[in-house]
Amino acid sequence: MKKKVAIIDHLGAHGSSHHFYLFGQAKGLIDNNVNVSLYTNSATIDPKIIDLDFFQFYKNIFSRNNKLSSLFRYLFGSLYSHFHARLNSCNIFHYHLFGSSLLVIFNMIIAKFLLVKIALTIHDVQSFSKKNKSSFYSKIIYFFSDVILTHNQFSKEEMILNQPFLKNKIEIIPHGNYIPFINIENDQAASRNRIQIPLDKKVLLFFGMIKTVKGLDVLLNAMPEIIKCNNDILLLIAGKPWRDDFSKYEKLIDDLKIKDYCKLDIKFIDHKDVALYYSASDVVVLPYRKIYQSGVLMMSLCYKKPVIVSNLPSFKQIVDDKKTAIFFKSEDSNSLSSTVNNLINNEDLMSDINKNAYKLMLEKFNWTQIGKLTSDAYNKIDYFYKK
């Protein structure tokens, strides 16, 4: 029987570039002879992928003015999506998990009621929020799931460490590249003019959702030493705080006397503007304390930008030091400043890293290969139920 998969994801384009992941996943599965329907929100534009059935049943669910109304629209969108998918003979429902909640459990209960199998891609193994009941909710969600997909060995080991019963449910499926869905803006001068950055600056980019775990303070504390060696440096911080108060970073910037060397675009960056920020930058810095996977890393490599990353296990499973990225010692501002100073003026090394990283994205993280791995993971569901 041919697989018919419904990818049901309310987040879509509201998650910055998450919809590109959904599009890539769908395209990869279709390339491997899987029928795919994508159910998402009204803000996500139809990608016009051949043979993809695309539906926007989650209507206006992110309104801040009336949370109760948004909740009802979410519940209606979920019910409509699930029953529509089942009436169209979808036999596998595929979800994406960034954090456990009762709403995720609600969706899975519907799926079980409709007698379909559940595939779950885990983006964050453990929520980085301190205010969550994720451990209890996660156990229920994992119990309902027939196969669980993680992006790397590190994430798999963390999950098994906390919940050993999951060992035979988990498959490793890499995070695919964004190349088919982005426009690489090569006119750096035009991009800098658009976001008001001087043309004569060397620009470090910190991009994406701002969370304590992402180590922005580590980068800020490294800036004085970077400035000593590079008076033309500028740190561009672009993103929206996530359950965090940005004022503590503003205070740190003032205390370090680096305000003149920072440009702050503290807001949600629409996916239409993402290319401007990457084009305007020279180097992307990911000073994370802990991470399970990073869309920002994948995006940076796809935009052909050299990346400096903390030496975390999850990063080491994607890139190689001095070949496709540059590593520094995690949470060590002195190590980070030294690494930036060594790279920022080495144009040959930056060029080599860009070429190697882009080749890596094309060869190892293309969606057709990932679609094959995902389709094989679906086969594992059948294996369990035939035993």
What is the topological layout?
Layout: E1 4-8, H1 18-31, E2 35-41, E3 52-58, H2 67-87, E4 92-97, H3 102-113, E5 117-122, H4 134-144, E6 147-150, H5 153-162, E7 170-172, H6 188-194, E8 202-207, H7 216-229, E9 233-239, H8 247-255, E10 262-266, H9 274-280, E11 283-286, H10 295-302, E12 307-310, H11 313-316, E13 326-328, H12 333-344, H13 347-364, H14 367-386
Helix pairs in contact: 1-14, 2-3, 3-4, 6-9, 7-12
Describe, in plain words, how this protein is organized in 3D.
With 387 residues, the chain is α/β, with parallel strands linked by helices. The chain folds into 2 domains: 4-176 and 366-386, Rossmann fold (3-Layer(aba) Sandwich), CATH 3.40.50; 183-364, Glycogen Phosphorylase B (Rossmann fold). Helix content is 43%, strand content 17%. The protein contains 14 helices and 13 strands. A 7-stranded parallel β-sheet has the order 3-2-1-4-5-6-7, with helices on both faces. Strands 10-9-8-11-12-13 form a 6-stranded parallel β-sheet, sandwiched between helices. Helix 2 (67-87) packs parallel to helix 3 (102-113). The chain is globular, with a radius of gyration of 21 Å.
